[in-house]
Amino acid sequence: MPFRSDIPSDAWPALAYPAFESTQYLLHRGLQVLGKLKLTSPFLPQWSGVALWIQARGLTTGLIDHRGGAYEVSVDLIDHEVKCVTSWGRTQSLMLTSMSVAEFSSQLLGVLKRVGVEVSITPMPQEIPNPVPFDQDTQTRAYDPTLAHGWWRILVSTQRVMRAFRGCFEGKTQPIGLMWGTLDIRDVFYNGKPAAPGPDADFIRRNAMNAELIEMGWWSGSAAYPRPAFYAFAYPQPAGIETAKVLPASARWDTAMSEFILDYDDLRLSEHPDHDLLAFFRSTFLAGVEHAGWDPKLVGSGKPA
Q1: End-to-end CA distance of the chain
Q2: Where are the alpha helices (DSSP H) in 168-303?
Q3: Which of 199, 200, 262, 202 is nearest to 232 (CA)?
Q4: CA 55 – CA 76 distance, rounded (Å)
Q5: What does each C-alpha distance from 174 to 29, 35, 114, 125 come to in angstroms?
Q6: DSSP letter assigned to residue 130
Q7: What are the helix (H) ranges across 136-227?
Q8: Up-side HSE of residue 129: CA atoms within 13 Å toward CB?
Q9: Tens place of pLDDT for every residue, the chain, 305 residues?
């Protein structure tokens, strides 16, 4: 394939939530359809196996075992297609374009059937306000390939900085990935101690928040917070963490969300975005370690690089 000179190369592209909202809606529900395919795999603690993995052209489920073989579904955000490949040599794809969630779901399940994957999923979206079953969500959603590509480029850049940060940690971690329920890329660290998710916790939270952790990530915004942002928090929330001094200067504690926030545009417009994001991850992580009383030996040589 020849070099595509039309593909933007900006590591931190602009992404305004109001413009991205329709594309995000379709991507979010569509990626949930993909993510639900992974629920046939054996459960791993804190849902560590269900994330979608970032790859050189988009996102992938990774291998999913099926009847003595395996298949994989990937979302190409350069050529904007969804492709299913199998270990028995069959390949099928569908184009990503403006459509309804119901159309996407039906087309994807049709692709799977044509390559020999017989599977059913629960059609109700997860971790979404006022969910509509995939097969009943018939409103056409505009899909903007430039914005979708930019969203993925931010995931790639965020993962790059996360990888640079996490090398110091000597405790338990999970693979960095996109959590399709909440549509955020996250990196999470554990100190080995159990935690109580609370008496009103649903099934997802009971299995996600049953251990003490520090988490950081990025999401592209929502109706409740209509701009993309990086976040970080410790669970259970330790007393006094909201008073911690964190970097860069534009980062802050958000009382409504009970977590540290760094708005994406503040980072994107800085002179050294990678440096500033690394400072955000480092300072919020150390705030969690200090205020939650984690063993400092878990931080390895002393400070994240």
Answers
A1: 38
A2: 203-208, 264-268, 273-292
A3: 262
A4: 9
A5: 24, 17, 34, 24
A6: S
A7: 145-166, 203-208
A8: 3
A9: 455 656 666 999 999 999 999 999 999 999 999 999 999 989 999 999 999 999 999 999 999 999 999 999 999 999 999 999 999 999 999 999 999 999 999 999 999 999 999 999 999 999 999 999 999 999 999 999 999 999 999 999 999 999 999 988 999 999 999 999 999 999 999 999 999 998 899 999 999 999 999 999 999 999 999 999 999 999 999 999 999 999 999 999 999 999 999 999 999 999 999 999 999 999 999 999 999 999 988 886 545 44
pTM above 0.85, yes or no: yes
Return the structure tokens found at 78. 């350069």
Structure tokens at 174: 């999970």
CA 214, CA 275: separation in Å to the nearest integer?
20
- Which amino acid type is present at position 100? S
